[in-house]
Design brief:
Blueprint (H helix, E strand, L loop, with lengths): L1 H4 E4 L7 E8 L1 H13 L3 H8 L1 H8 E4 L6 E6 L6 E5 L1 E4 L9 H8 L12 H9 L7 E7 L2 E6 L4 E4 L9 H8 L5 H11 L11 H9 L2 H15 L3 H34 L5 E5 L5 E5 L8 E3 L5 E2 L3 E4 L3 E5 L1 H4 L4 E4 L26 E2 L4 E6 L7 E6 L5 H10 L7 H30 L4 H15 L4 H18 L2 E3 L3 H6 L4 E4 L11 E9 L2 E2 L15 H8 L4 E3 L2 E3 L2 H10 L2 E3 L3 H6 L6 E4 L27 E10 L4 E8 L6 E6 L1 H6 L10 H10 L2 E10 L6 H6 L2 H4 L4 E9 L6 H10 L3 E5 L4 H10 L8 E8 L8 E6 L2 H4 L28 E6 H10 L4 H7 E5 L3 H13 L4 E5 L5 H6 L2 E4 L11 E3 L6 H38 L7 H19 L20 H26 L18 H7 L5 H7 L4 H21 L13 H19 L3 H7 L6 H36 ...
Parallel strand pairs: 21-33, 21-38, 33-37, 34-36, 36-37, 38-39, 39-40
Antiparallel strand pairs: 1-2, 2-3, 2-4, 4-5, 6-7, 7-8, 8-9, 10-11, 10-12, 12-19, 13-18, 14-17, 14-19, 15-16, 15-18, 20-40, 22-23, 22-32, 24-25, 26-27, 27-28, 28-29, 29-30, 30-31, 31-32, 34-35, 35-41
Helix pairs in contact: 3-4, 9-11, 10-11, 10-15, 14-15, 14-32, 16-32, 29-30, 29-41, 32-34, 32-37, 33-37, 33-38, 34-37, 34-40, 37-38, 37-40
Membrane topology: Multi-pass membrane protein
Enzyme class: translocase
EC number: 7.6.2.16
Length: 1226
């Protein structure tokens, strides 16, 4: 039974959860209902806040198979609880014409994934379950995903489309014909409507949800309590503040929902044509699409309403929604393994691997190309929230909570205040009972002590600093959709940068070419656009080997291709739709040089070309295109020169890859050295190759030939050298970050050596630093995985490893400060493949590599996310700065993600910079630090405010007195609110400093600061309270008391005689009250000044003019009414007249208090960090952050860093299924 009760769903994935089954219990419901009535609804609120308690209080445990309610708990560090109701999907209402077996499959759980499994046992399995209750399926919905009961695995599982476990062959053989109407209706029932529904909640719903926040409930309790105590004014002030706070919160939440809704609504419902089994075309709404439908892509393009794989024709797609690149991409049909002679075997279809053949939801198809009479078709693989866009929207709708120490500490701190309030509560009750006070008064006064200790204005006060920071960020062009992240940005100690478009300029410039003749490199040439080269194969390759297309008469495509094509100055002409329709084949795209470049009548410029008389026009038709594949790192085309008998194959791509596909005799001997020279200088190098194809290859054969048949045995033609210039501000920004002890890391999709070179150029890697390249190889042929370590610079300088000079091995520098440990002089660089192998097979090395890993090249989007996670696992606070949605996952996962593009994709990033420059990173960190320090100041101030007021009230309760309503109002409104909202206005300090602000409230220096101020304030208040009783003129105050001995006192007293009865009831007016009120009023201002920190994170206080003005005004006002009493003010504030010498004594107490408070706070600031640990007897403290602890360990590790030319092998298999599992986030 126990095994039945707890299972795991989404195992090994990001949203892995434990699942427990429960059934509703009537007797428990009855008990809870009674409890709700007895507690006046409070129990209901408690159960609303705690889903786990709600389920456990009203249900009993049951087997998951038969339960009515499921309780879910995430397995990550947050351990969050959710509950969901089990629903029944009835299939009886839908008679399905053909697939009786399909409904049986469902009871067997196989419909959870639409994959036909041809094994015999499976068929038996289906028949075995045919008698089961197959017409009803149990499911629940969580975070917009439906989980169905799957009998095979005895667990709930979400419905998968054709994106998992389907082979490329079966896509063509089983799915390309389309669905019958019956099958479509059946799948529609299971998959539901194809839409990414972002419902904008009604204002009323949002309001209820916001108002039921525990803080607002506490405020409501406080307001009711104060109203019964006739303390209406402050209650009204809190109500107004709460309303403003709730309204602004509602506005921003609703605005985000509307923004998201608008982003998704663009394709919510369009009409689409689908092919049915009997070749008929049916027009349906896009909301009715299901996986397996064959969708016809219209000629004039469309916005994709789902994820689909292309099986016919070619599409030009704008994917800026997903990738952040506004460059149109050419998508071709999925290779059909059964047609290709040298097929890729029966590989499984995967949207990520086959993204060049997949049309993603939300992307725009601009144009289609096709065979005449054949439609451009795509098979729907995923719909609704399962699509790539749906997953993006889900991650925005249900973000992972940000775990930040400040917020955790804030709750701990509140608990401490609640404990203090509890002590006061008990003291008040005991004291009042001993003094025989009425029961009603006891209840109100004891509850009042709780509202004094836990200030209801705290949430508003805490958010003030963040709101001001957000406003300042907006002024410098940084927009924020997640304000609580601003504080976290103040903690960043490592920033990852994308390279292209972030550190460097977006485009590449053509620096020159280096051609090869007779397997020798010629000297580099700058100009490609000249008469000598116009008919060479080199230029022909540049002219044809690209994915450019004309959209509304303008050439567009990959910027790299565009630059190369512009460099040769040729003209591209595409066939119009009418022309394509006239011919029974795809009309080729034609390229030709401008007339002025063509010589009058010279024979071909290359020996390989046929020496027959050239026609008047020289043009090349592009017959077939194999688009660029990042996995293959190359693209190729088949082209034919007009009038030529044979076709040509041209190929371009990564130099190492191209060279390996060429005849070895055509590749120059010094190829490796030349290439390395260029990449070290930071150039992007692309190699070109060519070969003549056999004359037997006809047009139609070429259309069906596989890539591998074309891309081999080529002639190496040379290199194109592209320059990627650093942005002007890059070196300066990185230097600022380094000075501030903030590590910088490069994460790029570019080549490794280019990335290392750019890292050196921009100062990420200093000239004297060593770079160690980790090249990891996966297990192969029974051998374990291994890592080869190369030293990037020393390798080329030395012929063999023993010749490496001793200085090539990095020196370990022992630093006094732990902060500097990461500044030792070696860096690791690796590519995406190596990174994946290391993550999977070398788990123990990951933290060590994270400590010094600086360059990560050729990284895929999900690998970028994994890198961010790996860095966070060693306790770095990670920032990420990127310019596209390919960085989307990483931007979301980082503590502070800044998107430099304003595309829709930036919805996922917490911060978006209007100016596409990395100078926004230091600005954001500065503002984050200022906001963080402001939060600390406000928190400390609010803590002191509650403790000072709590102590004042406790002292006065001892003589059965209290502060008057207007005294409370003056302190709470005039002093506290004014001070809190002005003390948060300090702008950020002008530059980043190496010192870092504390991450949590519970740190030695901070607690010492708060506790010392509490002791000082309590001391001076007690001094005043007890000293006044020792004065010769002191007596227990009554309306006729005349301690001042002035004639005016008669007038003063007469004005109060009317209220005598009321005064007797509350006993507000007395000498103790007046003394405590004046001393405590000054104390609030003293701690406000003591806690208002300026440098090094904020501008000094004297530059915060509003704060300075408020504090001076309040000081002057309180001093004035203390030294020169004004009858009307005294009457309102219920202050009694005391002799002048006592007023001066109070002033002296206040001055001494101010001196002591500010001196102690300054001392804690200056000496706290070094003296406190020493005083507490922990001189050698183990650092809290894992990366610091690791750095300490590595200092004494003789095996680290690895020696040059060595290899590290993985240990034997860790688990039965291989080694540590690697989780991929899409």
């Amino acid at each position: 039974m126990d095994k039945e009760e707890r299972k795991i769903i989404n195992q090994g994935q990001e949203d892995e959860m434990e699942i427990y089954g429960y059934n509703l219990s009537r007797w428990k419901l009855a008990v809870v209902s009674l409890g709700v009535i007895c507690t006046g609804g409070f129990l209901l609120l408690l159960l609303y806040w705690m889903p786990e308690w709600r389920v456990k209080a009203t249900c009993v445990r049951a087997a998951i198979k038969d339960c009515e309610v499921v309780l879910l708990r995430t397995t990550d560090e947050f351990k969050m609880w959710f509950c969901a109701k089990i629903r029944i999907l009835s299939l009886e209402t839908h008679p399905v014409s053909s697939p009786k077996s399909m409904s049986n499959k469902l009871s067997n759980g196989h419909a959870v994934c639409l994959i036909e499994n041809p094994t015999e046992e499976n068929r038996h399995g289906i028949s075995k379950y045919s008698q089961a209750e197959s017409q009803q399926i149990r499911y629940f919905t969580h975070h917009s995903v439906k989980y169905f009961w799957n009998d095979t695995i005895h667990n709930f599982d979400f419905l998968k489309g054709l994106d998992e476990g389907v082979s490329c062959t079966s896509i063509y053989e089983k799915h390309s014909a389309g669905l019958t109407k019956g099958m479509h209706a059946y799948r529609k029932l299971l998959y539901g409507v194809n839409e990414i529904a972002v419902k904008v909640p009604s204002v009323f719903k949002l309001l209820i949800k916001e108002v039921l926040n525990p803080f607002y409930i506490f405020q409501l309790f406080s307001v009711i309590l104060w109203s019964t105590d006739e303390y209406y004014y402050y209650a009204l002030a809190i109500v107004v503040m709460s309303i403003v706070s709730i309204l602004s919160s509602l506005y921003s939440i609703r605005k985000q929902y509307v923004m998201l809704h608008d982003m998704v609504a663009t394709h919510s419902t369009v009409r689409v044509s689908v092919c049915r089994v009997n070749e008929e075309i049916e027009e349906i709404f896009s909301t009715d699409l299901v996986p397996g439908d064959v969708m016809v892509i219209p000629l004039n393009g469309t916005i994709m309403p789902c994820d689909a794989v292309l099986i016919n024709g070619t599409c030009i797609v704008n994917e800026s929604m997903l990738t952040g690149e506004s460059v149109p991409v050419t998508k071709t049909n999925l290779p059909n393994p059964s047609v290709d002679v040298k097929g890729i075997g029966d590989e499984l279809y995967n949207p990520e691997t086959h993204k060049r053949h997949t049309l993603f939801c939300g992307t725009t198809v601009i144009q289609t190309r096709f065979y005449t009479g054949e439609l451009v078709k795509a098979i729907v693989v995923r719909t609704g929230f399962s699509t790539s866009k749906g997953q993006l929207v889900r991650s925005i709708l249900y973000p992972k909570p940000t775990d930040f120490k400040l917020y955790r500490d804030a709750y701990l701190f509140l608990l401490c205040l609640v404990a203090v309030a509890g002590i006061g509560f008990i003291y008040t009750i005991i004291n009042s009972i001993l003094n025989e006070v009425q029961v009603g008064v006891i209840i109100i006064e004891s509850l009042d002590i709780i509202t004094i200790t836990v200030p209801p204005a705290l949430p508003a006060a805490m958010t003030a600093g963040v709101v001001y920071a957000q406003r300042r960020l907006r002024k410098i062009g940084i927009f924020c959709i997640s304000p609580q992240r601003i504080n976290i940005c103040g903690q960043l100690n490592l920033v990852c940068f994308d390279k292209t478009g972030t550190l460097t300029e977006d485009g590449l410039d053509l620096w020159g070419i280096q051609r090869v003749e007779n397997a020798r490199f010629l000297s580099p040439e700058e100009n490609v656009c000249n008469e000598m080269l116009v008919k060479s194969q080199f230029v022909a390759c540049l002219a044809t080997c690209h994915s450019l297309t004309k959209i509304e008469g303008v050439l567009s495509g990959d910027p790299l291709d565009l630059k190369m094509f512009e460099a040769i100055g040729w003209i591209l002409e595409e066939a119009t739709e009418e022309e394509t329709a006239l011919h029974n084949r795809i009309m080729p795209t034609v390229v030709r040089p401008p007339k002025q470049l063509l010589p009058e009548s010279t024979p071909a410029g290359n020996q390989e070309m046929e020496l027959f008389e050239l026609p008047a026009v020289y043009e090349i038709g592009i017959v077939r295109q194999f688009p660029f594949s990042s996995a293959l790192q190359r693209m190729s085309v088949v082209a034919r020169v007009l009038g030529d008998k044979k076709m040509d194959a041209y190929m371009k791509g990564a130099p190492e890859v191209i060279a390996s596909l060429c005849k070895p005799e055509t590749v120059p001997v010094d190829f490796q050295n030349v290439l390395e020279d260029f990449t070290k200088q930071g150039f992007r190098v692309i190699a070109l190759a060519h070969r003549k194809l056999e004359s037997k290859l006809t047009w139609h054969k070429v259309q069906n030939i596989s890539r591998d048949a074309i891309e081999n045995n080529m002639d190496f033609m040379g290199l194109i050298i592209m320059q990627n210039k650093l942005k002007q501000e890059t070196p300066a920004v990185l230097e600022d970050l380094h000075k501030a002890n903030i590590r910088t890391v490069m994460v790029t999709g570019d080549n490794m050596l280019t990335a290392v070179s750019v890292a050196r150029d921009c100062g990420m890697i200093l000239p004297q630093d060593k770079v160690i390249i980790a090249e990891a190889l996966p297990p192969k042929d029974g051998k374990v995985a291994k890592i080869n370590w190369h030293y990037a610079d020393s390798l080329t300088q030395c012929s063999h490893p023993s010749a490496i000079a001793s200085e090539a091995i990095p020196v370990k520098l022992v630093h006094d400060s732990l902060e500097d440990l990461q500044m030792t002089r070696y860096h690791f660089a690796m590519n995406g493949k190596s990174f994946s192998v290391i993550l999977e097979h070398f788990q123990d090395l990951v933290p060590k590599l994270m400590l010094h890993g600086t360059v990560f090249a050729r990284m895929a989007p999900d690998q970028k996310t994994q890198l961010i996670e790996a860095l966070q696992n060693v306790d770095y606070f990670v920032g990420m700065c990127g310019d596209g949605a390919n960085d989307c996952g990483a931007l979301k996962r980082a503590h502070g993600g800044i998107s430099l593009s304003e595309l829709e994709a930036s919805v996922a990033s917490p911060f978006t910079s209007k100016t596409p420059s990395i100078s926004c990173v230091p600005n954001l960190i500065r503002e984050g630090r200022a906001a963080l320090i402001t939060s600390f100041c406000v928190f400390k101030f609010m803590a002191l405010y509650s403790i000072i007021q709590y102590f004042s009230v406790t002292l006065l309760y001892s003589i059965l007195s209290n502060l008057g309503d207007f005294q409370f109002l003056f302190i709470d409104l005039a002093i506290i609110l004014v001070v809190v909202f002005t003390m948060s206005l300090n702008p950020a300090w002008k530059e980043l400093v190496a010192q870092r602000p504390p991450s949590g409230l519970i740190s030695g220096a901070l607690l010492f600061s708060v506790l010392s101020q509490i002791i000082i304030c309590i001391g001076f208040q007690s001094l005043g309270f007890f000293w006044v009783k020792q004065q010769p003129w002191y007596e227990v105050w009554h309306p006729k008391s005349d301690a001042c001995n002035t004639t005016g006192s008669l007038l003063w007293n007469s004005s109060h005689l009317d209220n005598e009865t009321e005064l007797d009831e509350h006993n507000i007016q007395n000498y103790e009250n007046t003394t405590v009120f004046f001393i405590s009023s000054f104390q609030y201002l003293i701690v406000a000044i003591a806690f208002s920190k300026g440098k090094p994170f904020r501008q000094p206080c004297y530059k915060n003019y509003f704060f300075v003005f408020s504090v001076i005004f309040l000081y002057v006002f309180i001093l004035f009414i203390m030294l020169y009493p004004v009858a009307s003010v005294d009457q309102v504030l219920q202050i009694v007249c005391v002799p002048y010498q006592w007023r001066v004594t109070m002033l002296i107490i206040v001055l001494v208090n101010a001196f002591v408070s500010i001196t102690v706070e300054e001392s804690v600031d200056r000496w706290g960090k070094c003296c406190l640990p020493w005083a507490l007897g922990c001189g050698k403290k183990i650092p809290k952050a894992k990366y610091m602890y690791l750095a300490q360990e590595l200092l004494v590790d003789p095996e680290w860093p690895p020696k040059p030319q060595t290899t590290t092998e993985a240990k034997g298999l860790v688990k039965e299924n291989g080694s540590c599992q690697i989780i991929t986030i899409t």
